Amino acid sequence: MPISQNLVHEFIKILGRENVFTEEAERQSYSYDGAVLNPVVPALVAAPDRQEDLGRTVRLAYENGLPITVRGSGTNLSGATIPEQGDGIVILTNRLNKILEINEEDLYAVVEPGVITARFAAAVAARGLFYPPDPGSQSVSTLGGNVARNAGGLRGLKYGVTKDYIMGMDIFDYRGELVKTGSRTVKCVTGYNLAGLMSCSEGTLGVFSTIIIKLVPPPRASRAMLALYSDARRASETVAGIIAAHIVPCTLEFMDNKTVKYVEADTRAGLPVEAAAVLLIEVDGGHEQMVEEDAAKVIAVCRKCGCTDVRVAKNAEEKARIWEARRGALPALARARPSIVLEDATVPRSRFPDMVTAVDDIALKHKLDVATFGHAGDGNLHPSILCDRRDKEEFARVEAAVDEIFDAALKFQGTLSGEHGIGMAKAKWMEKETNRATVEFSKNLRRALDPRMLFNAGKKYV
Amino acid sequence: MPERAPSAGRAEGRDLTRLSAMLMELDDLLVTCMRCGFCMAVCPVYGATMKESDVTRGKLALLNNLAHNLIRDAGSVNDKLNRCLLCGSCQANCPSGVKIMDIYLRARSIVTGYLGLSPAKKLIFRGILRRPGLFNALLALSGSLQGLFLREASKYAGTCRAPLLSPFIGDRHIPRLASTPFHSSRPYLDTPSGKSGLRVAFFPGCLSDKIFPEVAEASIKALQKHGVGIFMPAGQACCGIPALASGERASYDDLLRHNLRLFTGRNFDYLLTPCGTCTATIKEFWPKTQERRGEEEKTQILELSSKTLDISAFLVDVLKVELPPAGTGGRTVTYHDSCHLKKSLGVSEQPRRILKSLPGFNFKEMPEADRCCGSGGSFTLSHYDLSTDIGKRKRDNIVSVEAETVAAGCPACMLQIKDMLSRSGDKVEVRHVMELYAATMY
Hints:
The complex is a heterodimer. Helix content of chain A is 36%, strand content 19%. Chain A has 16 helices and 16 strands. In chain A, the strands form three sheets. Chain A has a seven-stranded antiparallel beta sheet, sandwiched between helices. A five-stranded antiparallel beta sheet of chain A has the order 5-6-9-7-8. In chain A, helix 1 packs antiparallel against helix 3, helix 8 packs antiparallel against helix 13 and helix 9 crosses helix 12. The longest helix of chain A has 20 residues. Chain A starts with a helix and ends in a 13-residue tail after the last helix. Chain B is α/β, with parallel strands linked by helices. Helices cover 49% and strands 9% of the residues of chain B. Chain B has 24 helices and eleven strands. At the A-B interface, helix 2 and helix 12 of A face helix 4 and helix 5 of B.
């Protein structure tokens, strides 16, 4: 092993033997994440279970020039937690998983970075409050990971994404010193907005120690519905129409015909397999009457835009069935073929139909099975390419298609990634979405905070 | 690492090409894991250790690496593979539908075949378990000698400690072996169907036979009261799961065949067991391990497995016994979902309906009722510390609803839960659903 025994012992002195993994099989278990990319085996894995140990681990690793990759649950889809080449260290934060405070009077919580998103949401709900961001991986993702990726989810349109809930943070810098930013107050203009900078930083600027999270009161009423279309374009017009009517649904999801067919085949839930596209819509709010009115307006827009049918959930059970269908999308698609490449190109809402058409054309051109679902209200598509990663010829077509999907997204003034992040998978595209100056500016920023470029150097900007 | 099999070290430096080639059989199954990591949410072992190599995503990655010759230390992969309860929680929660249990059972068989079985397991499986007569005789001997070793630990849990045996069993709190095992008090049953018009075969399973004969007795009583005829042949052997889980296919096949011979060709409508694990083994695992079997045997296995049912599911779904909800008040009873019952067989509502109907009891759901108790059968023998860490969470959940009784549908879970509650000094009794049900019948 290329890390010296002396150095290993220094890590053990800080963390205890049980929290330092050196065995080959242990290290190989941290060589991958949720991305379809080649694994890289780290030289060492450190798993601190106390705040102060985290800082000391960062300092020791940095002083010794080890490439550092911080990992929560390792569920991201773009390789942001695949270790660095060249005998890097993985610092695990999943054992730093305490909810330190939930403040009901001031509507905030303070957490360690390893707290599981869904566990946090449940703990907050038990106190009568609401933490809206709900990324698809919430049952296993960590809040630290969510912040590092600025994770989104189904509620982005009305409630925003992770960055909208970060009030402040404590961060370990490259020397292992604790840096403080933000506060427990609604307003705070002291210092730079470093918490904002950290959100979406993908482990390239510093290591999160604690996070102050904003909470909101939960909605008191909601209505869910399913609208069917014989033409995907009309579904997109409905999305634009709903926003133009000044209604902001909490969730506004799209599934194309292929997705619906796969979900139906998998779940037999009674979905309309004949529909070219469906929208799954939920409105919520402070009281019944308001929600009722919003729902009526949404139904009117759906009809005006030419939906063939709109089904409103009459009770909690029917509502649950609508969302089960949506949650069933990824499992149904994942079961269809051995591998699934899940993209998340995002475009301005009005270009959603163009993007759906573009994806269909690209799939046809490369003879690939691509099903598209996504957060229509956010212009955030999930074209899912069903394939077998062992088939080199097919996978080359997949990679070509992914490149073309990005090209299309940029052509429609969109972005490479709405919520999955850049990581290793898309770093080479950053200059194309922005320009050379942006890449240089970002690298200079990184050098100021990470002079030896050891924090996840192969990610984000390269 | 204390749990490491004595044989594991032998793999290092060996030529792994043959092992890799054998594991490549699993490649089509392994490739379906998309590394989403959703198994982390439900894996009891990962919940206790937070280590990636302990969760299925990590284990499948390691198996994949072993199959593709990317890792040298096969012994260490084997150690990781064995840190699994085979509870099936991951498979039930897997978005990609990876056939995880198939992978694990086949991988354990391949790796055990390659590295060899540990001497202790060799003795147990090949020397004892395969010989039901000897197994019974040994336990009868232990049963009469246990008074020398055992000291009462908790009268609520009905457990003992064995300070003199602590080098072998640690500080486990265990029930006494039955003074009269079930097969001694009832060696054989063959009764015609009564008013139900049904006749069932009954397979008590090792634990109901040797440690909890009251569970088997309660099951018989309930069946008889409902006018169900019973066929119970003498000389039943273990269902084979401990051997299968350890990758010891030869012993497993022997046990399967022994039992198959006892039941095949006999006249009954269902095969019932009061043990979630035995039911799942016969119903799910027997038909999945059909390689190297003749056509006739395959058919016999399929026929028997299709008739196999958990006893509470039989009462509720087949007999449709009347279960009027009980009035409120009485002892607080909660229910633990055995993994094999809920996740393999989908049995979870039926035992609850029975419990909710019991006069004198007040049913209260515990948090995480379907989270594994940490027993995993022989897992608790080889990984006691880990098993205890997992079991403590179950104990906390039971205590959190102030339960006075906790019911389960699997004697292996009962053993584990008794140990956990007893070691924490909790005044909670552990009962099989059938015990509580039969006690209401006069």
